[in-house]
Amino acid sequence: MEKINFLIVNKNSELHIKLLYKLLKSRKFTISHEKLPDYDSHKKFVLKNSYRTWNIIKENNKILGTFYITLNNEVGINLINPNHEKYVFIIKKILKNFSPLEQVNSVRSRYFLFNTNPNNSEYIKSLQLLKITHIQNTYACKKKID
After folding, report:
1. Which own/partner contact pairs does 37-43 have at CB distance under 8 Å and 24+ positions apart?
2. 10, 46, 81, 140: which has the fewest C-beta neighbours closer than 10 Å?
3. Which pLDDT belongs to residue 142?
4. What is the pLDDT of residues 84-126, one digit of tens each?
5. Is residue 113 part of a domain?
6. What is the number of helices (H) and of strands (E) in the chain?
């Protein structure tokens, strides 16, 4: 796994935009969308994204997935084939190469916050193995409640 490296997404590269869309279509777990956006909507999102960093994860030139870090210190990792050993290695590499931005009370944590779909047991297992503290569950209210 020492051959795992990160390639910064070039949001002006049509090749990267197409690759990101292909990866988005192959995701087993999602948080931010229920329905796959069309390619044009995806491209607009990539061009306007305001992630602190967005990277393609590669191992021996094979694409494993992507990760991003937001300006609020939130980390999202999306692997094509979720595997807790790869997640552990990737999380350690992220923590070695990046530091959280300074805390802003009630806006940004002083820690990295790792977001995951609650059904992604491999990602959750990796966070638990690394003793990363579980601090929150988030629920989406998708319908009007009378």
Report:
1. 42/17, 43/17
2. 140
3. 85
4. 999 999 999 999 999 999 999 999 999 999 999 899 999 999 9
5. yes
6. 4, 5
Q: Contact 7/29 with Cβ under 8 angstroms?
A: no
Alpha helical stretches, state H, 65-120:
84-97
> Within 10 A of 51 (CB to CB), how many other CB atoms are there?
16
Q: Is the full-model pTM beyond 0.70?
A: yes
Examine residue 16 and state whether it is found in any structural domain, yes or no: yes
Domain encompassing residue 51: 4-129
CATH code where residue 54 lies: 3.40.630
Closest Cα partner for 6 from 88, 73, 80, 68? 68
Residue type at position 48: K
Q: Please count the structural domains in the chain.
A: 1
Q: Does residue 52 fall inside a structural domain?
A: yes
1-20 pLDDT tens trace: 679 999 999 999 999 999 99
Is residue 32 in a domain?
Answer: yes
| Contact partners, residue 127, CB within 8 Å, separation at least 6 | 87, 91, 114, 116, 134
